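Exam review. A common question shows you a sequence with its structure tokens and asks you to describe the fold in words. Practice with the pair below. Do the first one on your own.
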Amino acid sequence: MYFPSKKDLWLTVIIWTIILVCIIPPILHIDPIGVFMLPTILDKEPIKSILMVGCGLFLSWLCFGTGYKIQDSKIRIKSGPYRKTINIKEIRKIRQTKNPFTAPALSMDRIEIYFGQFEMVTLSPKNKKEFIHLLLKENPHIQLDPSQIIV
């Protein structure tokens, strides 16, 4: 089953603003005054346009391509170029977090999944309860933090 990442409004607005600032000026041949200070070697219009559009497309890939798929007793995590597969039987603990650090998540409403011996990944599935329920169905030994009600 596929679970897209939950998206916070404020983060979506920031990402879309950056995408539009990167893509619209090259299309309309506008020079965003003072926004992009590129070295003089990159002052050529085609190179600047390729870099700006490339950044916009990369952010679009992150925005639309972040999600988690539970299949064959594994979680497959995708976020742009980032890929990770976790065996559900190796998951030890799940807890809620608001950790702001980089993760394959587009929301601050996140869960931390501890697996293996010392590994951890932070995710933000849109339907968190169903996501955790499926994980518990596959591995009933997963510990949930008792101070936080997730399910």
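Now try the second one, then compare your answer with the model answer below.
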Amino acid sequence: MTLLPELATEARRINAANGWGTDFDPDKKRDEVPSYLALIHSEITEAWTAKFPRDASRELGDVIIRALDLGELLQPGYWQDCHQEFCEIGQRDYRRETWVGSLMGLHVLTSEALEIYRKETPYRPGLLQRLHVLVSESWRLMERYPTDLPPERIIRDILRVNSQRGYRHGGRRT
């Protein structure tokens, strides 16, 4: 098993145990996907408010976890053949961008995912592709502004903490 499928499976398992996404059905409840995308937007905004880019690694890890989980909800097993180095379409050269520009790029990807959901039929292939790029670019940002821990370790630590949280913790609505 490669890294992203393993992380996605773990995120989905933990979120289901905590009561999130257990009745997910975007075909019957049209507001579910936008709610999940809004949660991704909120994590990007939290990264934006960090005093220094390196302080935003946890929020970027949350972006990755939420995107992996949504991908699993939309198409179980989607991440099975994926790696964090995967998607060439839409990749930005972060070496030439400011921190703010990089985060704007993540917001744009999330907004594009919402527009795909709203306007394309079927929407899943385009939305999954945007989630794919969002995971990749968030991972690359974590690598560009490193902390003492590599991205994988940060994400695993977040998942460990999430696994110890209570049922429907934090007031999350989706």
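Model answer, second protein: The chain has a mean pLDDT of 88. Residues 3-13+29-161 form one domain. Full marks require stating both points clearly.
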